[in-house]
Amino acid sequence: MKMLLQDARNQFYFCCPYIWTSNPDNAFDFENSETFFKFMDAIDMHDVQLVVKFENPDRCEVIPLETPWATPLPRPFLPRLNA
Q1: Percentage of the chain with pLDDT > 70?
Q2: What integer pLDDT is reported at residue 57 of this predicted model?
Q3: d(Cα 23, Cα 15) in Å, to the nearest integer?
């Protein structure tokens, strides 16, 4: 099993900082979820997803990621004033 970081917009896979590839065989394998999420906590990336590739080449899972920094903050409550 391989755990890969993929750009959701262009489907390229992360190799190393500033380098992305269209070939998943050349992508960096995070090997486990702990390593993957520690990396995600340390960087500021948007529009990425986790791709889990299994030994069976026909099987892969794509998990879109919602990052806390990409989520808009709620608008503050402002009471309506009667004019």
Answers
A1: 80
A2: 77
A3: 10
User: Tell me, what's the pLDDT at 69?
Assistant: 47
Amino acid at 2: K
Which residue do the tokens 């409550």 mark?
77
Distance between CA 78 and CA 9 in Å, rounded? 36
3-state secondary structure the chain: CEEEEEECCCCCEEEECCEEECCHHHCCCCCCHHHHHHHHHHCCCCCEEEEEECCCCCCEEEEECCCHHHCCCCCCCCCCCCC
CA gap 2, 60 in Å, rounded: 9
pTM metric for this prediction:
0.76
